[in-house]
Fold this protein.
Amino acid sequence: MRLKTRRNTPVWLIAVLPILSILVAFIFGAFFIIWAGESPITAYIALINGALGSSFAITESLTRAIPLIFTGLAAAVAFRAKFWNIGAEGQLYCGAMAATLVGTGMIDLPSIIMIPVLFIAGALAGCLILLLPVFLKTHMKVDEVVTTLLLNFIILLFVNMLLEGPWKDPMAMGWPQAARIIDNGVLPTIVAKSRLHFGIIIALVMSIIMWAILRFTVWGYEIRAVGYNQQASTFYGISINKSVLMVALFSGGLAGMAGVSEVTGLKGYLTLTLSPGFGYTGIAVAMLAQLHPIGVIVSAIFLASIYVGADAMSRTVDIPNYIADILVAISLLSVLVGSMLARFRIVWGK
Amino acid sequence: MKKLQFSKICKNFGAVVANDNISLSLGEGEILSLLGENGAGKTTLMNILFGHYISDKGFIEVEGKRLTPGSTKASLDAGIGMVHQHFTLAENLTVLENIILGTEPLSRLWSKKKLAYKKLEALSKRFGLLINPDAKVADLTVGEKQRVEIIKALYRDASILILDEPTAVLTPQETIQLFKVLKEMVNAGLSIMFISHKLNEILEISDRIVVLRHGKLVGEVATKKANKELLAEMMVGHKVTRPAYEKLEIGKAVVELNNVCLNASDGTVGLSNINLKIHEKEIIGLAGVSGNGQFGVASILQGLTHPSSGEFKLFGQSLIKYDPRYLTKSGVARIPEDRSKEGVIGEMALWENFLGEELRSKAKSGFIIDKKKAVNNAEKLIQEYDIRCEGAFASTRLLSGGNIQKLILARSLSNNPRFIIANKPARGLDEGAISFVQHQIINAKTKGAGVLLISEDLDEIFELSDRIAVIFDGKLQGPFDASSLTINQVGLMMSGEMKEGSFNEA
Amino acid sequence: MLELLELILTTSLWAAVVRIATPLIFATLGELICERAGVLNLGIEGIMTIGAMAGWLWVYQGGDLWGGVVFAAIVGMLFGFLHSILVVYLGLSQHVSGIGITMLASSISYYAYTMIIPFSTTPPKIVAFSAFEVPLLSSIPIIGGAFFNQTALTYLAYILVIVTFYVLYKMPLGLTIRMAGENPVANEAQGINVLLIRTGAVMVGSALMAIGGAFLTMSAFDAFYFGMINGRGWICVALVIFASWKPGKAFLGAILFALFEALQVRAQLIGADVIPYQIFSMMPYFLSIVAMMLVARRAAYPKALLVPFRQGDRI
């Protein structure tokens, strides 16, 4: 078996790939549903109904997509430069902590200033925590995958410590959660009788900004160049270390914003259950989007619908909602295979 | 009976015909040269012989027995050994480990190392190939690594030895040594196939010569009846015109290296007290066996490293802080050693690679890429330098080596540079492309540029250079007037046997 | 100071050290074998999870303990095979594929567990491996009782350290595995199928990771919990670097790491009033980062690690 380089990748193939991948995931997912003793068709109908069956369901799916857009962008921009930031989960909590620190009474400004301040604080926190892996990578040759992964655990323990200690809200009846964000810091909902909040607008704007940066600017060129080929990038005079730092700042900042948006838009306060793995799911979002910032919007909404739908399904049909994680993981792996089929053809024989 | 017989081998890759009905044979105790340009189909033929590819038509016989197609193991078991041009050795393992790899059944519960030592010693003695079996490959010289490759083949009791461009990395003296060993092996009954494009060597070593061109076998001559001109024409298909050398009145110094030192790092040699002055309108050839400090010199002149001490003067100005972008902007043309990995980013479009070195200086307010201008410029240069491609938006990885080199030349030479650092610019190209590259460099010289040409190919160095410097172990000798040197002298300096002072500067 | 010394000299501490170290030894060896063949396996965290789950499930369903170990190993192997198809045969990003495998294996574990035990608040227990003394060796003062009064799985881990060393350095097979991680082209030139060697190494390595996970449910504890691997897989990836890809050093690294962990747990009990326990719990992760910092700069990575090999595509 050999792989032969395709001369051209048809555009339709690139567009169809993510859809095919999700289809593959649903086919494999069917086996797990059968294993649980249910009919895949009933289950999937319940899932689709739960995700898109009513206007409330749709707003729920969109709400769930907000943090995924942020973490998806965080992974997309980092992976473009082959900087393997797997720490979006931790950076998300850093952003949430910063929002809590600033937003629970430290300052009180009109919403129009307060909200940007919270987002900037959260982005900075996400960046800051990534500086350690970046420094270790550029100066001590420590692989960033493991450091960013390990930092996730450290940060979660740190949040745990704050919530059981100094930040514990005495009004929360013993639950480990922080005080509420003050009213001026809370993101308004944009659809009546739903939880869909202003965060989605911010997420969309960030996607467009990232798209523009990657496509039209010197930074975008450098990020892509470093991801493709470090040796040639160096030859072109692009500093690898500076580019990695830049990418890390974007990536960490975006992941931090995910945390701010969840705290200020959805929950209203910091808890340990703020993110059910949004950081990790962001990787799948980015890969399904083929690392394209606009594609991230679509794939985030898609995966969010699967999660929301699976939650609903597990209430009606007797299937654990972990089915959503399985579907997401399979679609991640199949889009990975698909992206290769777009670049190569498999030739059997020698 | 023939030792090895190829019969009517055909192999197509899509529309490309790599081997077209090739039949040839190798007799016992014979040295057969396989001559051909890069891309003539030599490599494909060898890949078929070793089972990496399966031919579409035709078959191979060893001593009259058909070889199982597509099986490397079958070829090895039939007694065919190959010395690859790019060594297939693991640097972190020992010589012995590299040699015994694959010689024992994988199910065996322990390696019989004692036996291996004995066999190795016997082989070394028999052919005069001395090597320390416990040395780490990383610590060996290029010549010694090649010796390991040869022993590796002999260790498996090969009776047919294929050598792929074996002299490309050797000094002239090492080449003589190698030829002696080859003669001994032939006397001991081995058959040898010698693949090369160096005409002098082929005429010296072989009994018979076959020539491949564009995938076809175009000629077969006994070495006695062959001469250089005939072979060159057979290989290329037409008369070869290399640019004529012309000495020009030199101008001001463009580059000066004064006592430049560089610390050794990551397995590369450092530089000690390099002094070199390059003037307008001259080409200085830097000869040397790869890995003796060329990397350091090139890195400094290309802006990728700074000297750890000493002075780098460019156009009369002493540089303190500089980077590739600064050099490009000041009028330095940079031709990198590895054109497809370092010179371009394969995944990016042609227009983006044309922009590469001048990304920031050509961007609007240094930030927004002026795509329209960049694409126009790329299209102009594609025309001007006749780059065969599917347009400015095509992916660069689809280009052939020769066209990638054209892209790099177009990018760097179209700015009328005053200094050119060219690192092995013709390596691995076919005759047409080589001649194009050399013409471009000579034209630039005529227009007033100073050139430093780094190469392992002494023929090329002697053809193009006004003066020649030799680098060995991070130390530079010369430059000397090219007309006052012989290839032999340069060879001795390359292996460090001729020390400074033993030769009077001309 | 004296107290610390006294603590270090107790058998109970060392017994805990060995217990903590055992899963790390299995998984570190597993990762080491994969990386020696040139493949980074970030599926480790998920494969440990599903190994823990599979071993437990087998016994919970009435199977015997060793059957559970074998079952866990087979499941691990399957995921190793999946990883191989993606990164060895198709040459895809080893980072992304590994993370994907981890996501898939963990979610399948949790899915299966929730499906089988839908509404239980206390995880059902199984009868786990019990410890037994090795005659003679267990009578060595302090460490004898610690190292040689353990369950059979721990002894298996000791044996595997030696076996891995032996295979890698003394057998022709080991040479080809190391070559696959250093210069796969050399293997191909000798007629050895690199893809097969790499796939085999990844599958065996993944089996060891799964057994490491199974140790947790079948020996260290006697039930399956959510998040019970808790980053141990990632720590093992760091340990492989710390051990410079050598089995003996991997063993020592795991023991050293476990010693810190055991001391940390004890310190947590003593210092809980002054310092929040979370600070102590962070230590293993910090320690892993520090361990990598110590060696990364001069680490002799297998040269072909992360580099996909494409047959015949080399020229």
